[in-house]
User: Which sequence fits this backbone?
């Protein structure tokens, strides 16, 4: 009896935790199918009605796509996220290679300094970043949105851990065959760190897709707005917010991330575990 | 892969090119692009801009938008750079803060003849600093109390419709209690609905500082607590000490706390749309709610003036237009800001948006404000309107006092909250 109770109790606890994580998402999706008036009618007291659209409508999605620039924002976000992933992978992999495979004085100090930039909050860097990026003429451009974040300390840390695990023999064998640094990097190192690369790509994509503050400051033109900023455009003190559109926008913005995560979650968990236990 | 990567970069760069508004008139001088930073759906509106462009064919526009909640942060970052926007459409009460910080350019020299006589006094006070006008203003707004007529009729309540019959807060509380439905603590219909301002919780200075201010007296001796209670900050903006924790302020805040606690006629948490969903008898909002209800009357509704304790008062202030001090085109930007706020162009802007104008001469051109219910807003603005305490430290004041009033709504001690708020604002002012 006791043996049965333990798994049951564990299952209940896990279900409860799952519900805590899943309920907000269910609420958002459910509200996106409720009519504008009535969305919050069943918020208190919380019941099953809160999470289910009793008379579902597609009005919020229709007006979202008709009235707002959501498709453009999705396209902009996809371009920025994909570009940021590509540039981050290239830059971090090259830096990790240099710090693990090329011996030079001060390599550890360089790595520590790069890691220390982890400690700087985005808000503290906002003004100098804006000065630099606008000084480069990249204000209000998609390149300006992505470029400050491609040198990722987290990415460097993750890939450096992975590179250090590769046996030196692989590199030595390639060198005997006459390979230089570029060939060793491209043909020997990179093919052996696919999982960390995929993990970094996914993490970077999530970060970029969900970015709000920097895209808000550097890219305000409606033509290059990103999805999170576009969703936040709803409502002001002198206009009533359209909550239905906001929930529909949040649902649309979340779906690509969920799909991507479901497709790549194996690599994501492997990579995260690897970054935690090795080194 | 390489081709794909290059295509993505090329596409991104192409998409990032910002189109300017088209111009059809001939330009014979140096072309100028005015960069405008505003919140979505805000003025200046295309019709007014195009009309102005006909007179200034060498000027084009680049309009950038950020959500209202992030406007202050964006201005703080961009104004500090070498590449600021030329025109800011910002929250009016921040005028003095921006002027003191060197963000705004004074536009006094550009104002047309007759402006000083036509502008609402509250607007002029709000947008001036050390003798200079920093924004001509375009629109004004304030809050009034909406009511669900079906619910008030069912409860046998007839809210006043004119300023001279306005309720006192105790009278309003009696109406809230009579109209509220359901179990105490968990009503199905609230007496006073939750705000939609800020994060939906009570406390915001714009809406809730008027409780304590209305328990003061602007005609009293300037050294008296009644006088200080009304102004809630020294009228010259020099100090806040002794202005927030007066006996009158504490008395009003104790009443305010009861609304959310002992009487429990108002929720502490945000419930968006509660009034429009028929879940609240009364609700405080700007003309935006009335405009929405006029277009789509989902409930039977009316407007009653904001209640008061001793002196009726409502806060004025809305988004306004200014020129950045570091604009690369200061003269044409100042001319644009002033022109957008004057005469026919101001009418075009205000009529598009649906709030009240700042120019008295334009009031007659808005039929919706000539009669009840929307006339209540005009009457309040003319007779009761006061800017939120004008000060170069308003941004800090707004944040600190909002937190203090919110803590009172959540059950905190009014005296302690206001004493702490005074100390914190005073500290910010000394920095």
Assistant:
């Amino acid at each position: 009896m006791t043996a049965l109770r333990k798994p049951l109790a564990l299952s209940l606890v896990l279900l409860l935790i799952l519900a805590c994580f899943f309920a907000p998402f269910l609420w958002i999706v459910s509200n996106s199918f409720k009519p504008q008036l009535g969305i919050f009618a069943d918020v208190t007291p919380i019941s099953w009605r809160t999470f289910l659209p009793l008379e579902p409508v597609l009005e919020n999605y229709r007006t979202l796509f008709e009235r707002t620039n959501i498709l453009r924002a999705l396209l902009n976000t996809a371009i920025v996220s994909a570009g940021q992933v590509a540039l981050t992978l290239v830059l971090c992999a090259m830096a990790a290679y240099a710090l693990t495979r090329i011996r030079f004085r001060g390599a550890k100090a360089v790595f520590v300094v790069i890691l220390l930039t982890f400690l700087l909050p985005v808000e503290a860097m906002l003004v100098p970043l804006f000065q630099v990026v606008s000084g480069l003429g990249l204000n209000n451009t998609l390149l300006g949105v992505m470029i400050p974040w491609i040198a990722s300390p987290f990415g460097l840390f993750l890939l450096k851990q992975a590179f250090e695990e590769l046996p030196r023999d692989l590199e030595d064998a390639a060198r005997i065959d006459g390979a230089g640094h570029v060939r060793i990097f491209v043909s020997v190192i990179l093919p052996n760190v696919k999982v960390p690369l995929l993990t970094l790509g996914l993490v970077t994509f999530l970060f970029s897709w969900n970015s709000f503050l920097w895209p808000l400051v550097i890219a305000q033109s409606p033509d290059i707005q990103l999805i999170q900023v576009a969703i936040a455009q709803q409502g002001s003190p002198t206009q009533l917010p359209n909550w239905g559109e906001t929930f529909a926008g949040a649902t649309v913005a979340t779906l690509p991330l969920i799909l991507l995560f479901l497709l790549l979650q194996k690599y994501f968990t492997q990579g995260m575990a690897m970054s935690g236990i090795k080194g | 892969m390489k081709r794909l990567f290059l295509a993505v970069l090329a596409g991104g760069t192409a998409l990032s090119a910002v189109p300017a508004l088209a111009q059809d008139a001939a330009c014979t001088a140096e072309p100028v692009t005015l960069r405008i930073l505003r919140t979505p759906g805000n003025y200046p509106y295309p019709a007014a801009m195009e009309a102005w462009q006909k007179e200034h064919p060498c000027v084009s526009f680049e309009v950038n938008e950020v959500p209202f909640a992030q406007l202050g942060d964006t201005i703080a970052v961009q104004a500090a750079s070498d590449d600021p926007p030329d025109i800011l459409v910002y929250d009016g009460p921040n005028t003095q803060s921006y002027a003191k910080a060197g963000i705004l350019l004074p536009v006094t020299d550009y104002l047309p003849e007759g402006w000083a006589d036509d502008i609402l006094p509250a607007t002029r006070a709000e947008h001036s600093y050390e003798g200079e006008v920093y924004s001509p203003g375009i629109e004004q707004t304030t809050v009034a109390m909406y009511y669900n007529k079906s619910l008030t009729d069912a409860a046998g309540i007839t809210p006043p419709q004119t300023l001279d019959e306005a309720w006192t807060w105790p009278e309003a509380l009696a109406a809230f209690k009579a109209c509220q439905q359901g179990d105490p603590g968990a009503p199905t219909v609230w007496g006073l609905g939750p705000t939609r301002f800020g994060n939906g919780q009570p406390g915001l200075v714009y809406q809730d500082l008027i409780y304590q201010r209305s328990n003061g007296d602007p005609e009293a001796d300037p050294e008296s607590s009644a006088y200080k209670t009304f102004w809630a900050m020294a009228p010259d903006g020099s100090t806040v000490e002794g202005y927030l924790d007066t006996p009158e302020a504490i008395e009003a805040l104790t009443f305010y706390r009861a609304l959310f606690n002992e009487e429990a006629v108002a929720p502490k948490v945000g419930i968006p749309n509660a009034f429009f969903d028929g879940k609240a008898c009364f609700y405080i909002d700007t003309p935006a709610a009335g405009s929405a209800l006029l277009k789509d009357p989902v409930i039977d509704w009316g407007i009653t003036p904001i209640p008061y304790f001793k002196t009726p008062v409502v806060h004025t202030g809305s988004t306004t237009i200014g020129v950045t001090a570091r604009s690369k085109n200061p003269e044409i930007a100042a001319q644009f800001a002033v022109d957008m706020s004057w005469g026919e162009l101001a009418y075009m802007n205000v009529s598009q948006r649906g709030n009240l104008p700042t120019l008295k001469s334009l009031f007659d051109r808005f039929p919706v404000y000539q009669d009840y219910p929307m006339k209540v807003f005009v009457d309040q603005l003319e007779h009761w309107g006061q800017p939120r305490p004008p000060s170069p430290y308003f941004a800090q004041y707004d944040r600190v006092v909002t937190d203090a009033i919110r803590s009172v709504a959540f059950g905190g001690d009014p005296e302690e909250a206001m004493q702490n708020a005074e100390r914190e604002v005073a500290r910010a002012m000394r920095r």
